[in-house]
Amino acid sequence: MGMFVNPDNSAFQAALNARIYIDKSGLINYTNSVLASSDAFICNSRPRRFGKSITANMLTAYYSKGCNSEKMFSGLEVSKSPDFKKHLNKYDVIHLDIQWCLEPAGKAENLISYISEKTISELKECYPGVLKSDIVSLPEALAIINAETGNKFIVIIDEWDVLIRDEAANKNVQEDYINFLRGMFKGTEPTKYIQLAYLTGILPMKKEKTQSALNNFDEFTMLSPSNLAQYVGFTEDEVRGLAREYNQDFDKVKMWYDGYLLRDYQVYNPRAVVSVMLKGEFKSYWSETASYEAIVPLINMNYDGLKTAIIAMISGAEVKVNTGTFKNDTLNIKSKDDVLTYMIHLGYLAYDQTNSMAFVPNEEIRQELTAAVESRKWNEMLGFWQNSEKLLNATLDKNENAVAEQIEKIHNEYVSVIQYNNENSLSSVLAIAYLSAMQYYFKPIRELPTGRGFADFVFLPKPEYKMDYPAIVVELKWNQNADTAMKQIIDKKYPATIEGYTGDILLVAINYDKDNKEHQCLIQEYEIR
Fold it and tell me: Residues in domain AAA-ATPase-like (predicted)?
């Protein structure tokens, strides 16, 4: 049992000892299914606060020969698998936390030599007489042990991308690190000594320099989580169960912390959910581990349409993004799409894989992005805000003509931002139009009962504004009429979506006539029976 080689299970035990632990051991069923195969090279990237280290510690506790973890896992999901005991604590495991290793290494330039020296020293204790005293290459040491004994290794690397992110400008450090990873995982020899390689970090594999070096890794990302989606964060069912257990309002939890759309799962930020369950305070917990200052340089880059896209998403709109141009590093950011893709990996934006759309996932992140934007006082934001305040006031005053005129003005001024040709784009304009409402209202709830064929919005005021601002239910129509939109709100009982809300409710029906390029609006108060 060593620090890097065959560690014990104490790190995972600490997670199990926490007041809240959600069982994600089902992931092990997947890793067991790919052991010693060409699919056994996994890079599972996700943002901070999404349980990367807990997962790495769980895999270590399960596979490492340095501990006996049968009792620890006996009540978890993986224990139900027929292969549970077959692989339990049966392998030589090397677990490296790159972030931690940087401190004892002294500086980034020393990292590879530090890891290699310490790991080889522990391997010599595990395999006395197998490694010569002059061996300095960790990949070579693993190859020699495999050739002599036939044993294979499970290598788990946490925060694999620290140097890619923090030492992006240091070409020598990057090159040395990439060569180290190439030696560890790429080629014929690694297929002999690697039973499983599991890398986790914020970024996927760097495309340019590691494309040929590490293209044997299966990538599971915030863009494409594949069949590991349910293990990235907390699922809706898991959060609903916690809300019942801790007597929290699930709908409020959802409004604050939901929004990451991963495959078929609505995924919540684990750290935030745990915090609100234990503390009962609905606020942004993001700044406790990641300051918005990290993204201020990103969102202020001088790329056409970037700032407007950020404002649109803060408003509740979705923005088309081409994620294929991003090179998975911070030096090759060359466009608006690169910035937005990086923000998806960082967790500041969510991603709709089916429609290639980026959006702000929840109230917590919206507050962080708003603070980041306001710290630089964008002129673009001031313009949006002024027009939006006029629209909100007109809506609250039930001035239908003024609402129609103001939406038309916003449509005309920002038509270059949004391709205005269908009902989806109409909903995007509406989200931007009501930007100023965001100081009084939560992010609008978008109801799409028939897929993406039409868009409804529900604006719920924050608790402190409930007595002064009504909830607003909006129905949009394209090339029809406002009467039809209002009739649909009433006939389909849209206000029932907020039947638990006890304040005033305004019903707003909006139609856009493509031929004469005019908007129509009807507004009426809704009486709760």
Answer: 19-208
